[in-house]
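Box 3.1 A note on notation
Throughout this textbook, protein chains are presented in two layers. The first layer is the amino acid sequence; the second is a token string describing backbone geometry. Keep the layers aligned when reading.
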Amino acid sequence: MRNSIALVFILLLCCPLLAQNRIEKCASRYLESIRNKEAELTAFFLDMPKGGDLHHHFAGSVYAESFATLAVLRQMWLHTATLKLANQPGTESDWVKISDLQKSGTWPDYRDRLLRLWSVMDFQAAENKPSYAQFFNSFGHFGQVEDDLDGGLLELKKRAKAEKVAYLETMMKRVNCGPLPEKYKTYTALLQNLARNNESAALDTLRSLYRQLRTPGLENCVRDFNANLNERHQRLGIDDEEFTLRYQTYVLRINDPMFLYRQLIASFLAAEWSPLVVGVNIVAPEHDEISMSNYQLHMLMFRVCTEFHPTVKKSLHAGELTLGLVKPEDLHWHITSAVQTAGANRIGHGVDLAHELNSGVLLRQMAQQGIAVEINLSSNAFILGIKGSAHPISMYLRAGVPLVISTDDAGVLRSNHTAQFVQLAQQYPQITYAETKKMVFNSIQYSFLDEVEKQSLLQNLAVDFQVFEAKWGENAHRLKRNEAVKSKK
């Protein structure tokens, strides 16, 4: 296995006190000694192997500086009043070419304003702009420059490898097969009514519609999507000995339900037919009025698609809600429905767990079935104000539900994977090093990779941890030795 093995042996020879059965304890001891030292925690976790990042939005993970640089390279036009970008100016007088802003010396100021519009940089809460609005609105503002898929993928790969993240499972693109045929638009009201009043009839109707919507044209669209994805992935050389990337495709909760359903069918086909597309998801603000109104219908759609495509994996955003953002009764059932109705293999966020009715039954089911939860600490803190003891992470841990630590949208949130582990160590001192390490291994074990790829990454991760623990365990040994010397003086 990689050259890391040789380094392990060298470290163990040089540090006889760090025999194989002791190096983990030494690394654990060092972590406990720096729990309240953020800079030292950052250095420790930056160097720690992190396995995979399983809750990862492509566009939201590219830093805004990259979008600004791309706008300059493309010599786009900026509407100075609204900060909209375009390849060609509109008819209004406020459109200025970026090259002219550079010549006048005003571009740096506009660039800073764009960074604040496209991310949470320097965000200050105000009555008229809650934090969740700043977060979700960011995506609409940089839409003109998020199409640099090549540059974005290479940026994310470089950053992941620097942080010792071996695997990314990113939500990059939807399968776009054009507008919904007019004749299907009339089904929306019927399905909404059936989902609320007669789920059995809703399922039967969805099954019939699946057969109608899966046309040769839709299948050809999916083949084109997969071919384009594969071409880009191979051309850029995304996978290498130390890094693997796979894709989830997804649908938007806020779309018309019938349009969403057709796109969901295409998404399941893409995941079934391509080894690069490993799962299907549903995104957009869960608290949105349309999202809330159609939530159960969406879960029924996932259930029917799973009947036709039983091998396709599903990671569903569910329970990204909090009291006050929605009514209390709207917190009682979203995670439960994602697990029991849609058959989710993983849950993204899951922060309203404490409000779910029969949460104990739900937790036991998730633990028994190995339904992992993607924990996104920076995201939950900024968007929902959920952190520390308000977060249900301890409830999941006590119940034996597998957890993984993810970034969500590191670019928009001005964060990275390392920072998530720093927050974990600071906010939850009861979570041990061994439990933290288990979460890292979970991020490969509960990924949607095939078993051969999964086992290979798990083996590499074990070796990487041996190197890491030998190195940082020696730091713990040195610290203990220095303390002993000081105590004798």
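Residues 444 and 457 are 7 Å apart (CA to CA). Residues 64-141 form one domain.
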